[in-house]
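sry for the spam today, last one i promise. struct tokens for design, 73 residues
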């Protein structure tokens, strides 16, 4: 299970980010509160991750703080 990602912020929108972690790009859904706390593209970023695995889905939800993650859970 993925619980934390740290890497380079390649792109961002109000509801998702693309993070390069040692050559692997992860698309992570984020809340707007996290979006407003993000650095500029090309900067290092670290997110706490909530992973959802289903028969037809693998989704990552990212949060800047553990508090935000716990509220989501």
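last one done:
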């Amino acid at each position: 299970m993925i619980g934390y990602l740290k890497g380079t912020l390649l792109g961002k929108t109000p509801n998702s980010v693309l993070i390069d972690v040692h050559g692997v790009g992860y698309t992570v859904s984020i809340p707007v509160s996290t979006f407003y706390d993000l650095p500029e593209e090309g900067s290092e970023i670290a997110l706490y991750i909530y992973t959802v695995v289903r028969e037809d889905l693998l989704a990552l939800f990212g949060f800047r703080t553990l508090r935000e993650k716990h509220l989501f859970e």
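Residues 66-72 form the longest helix (7 residues). ok im logging off now
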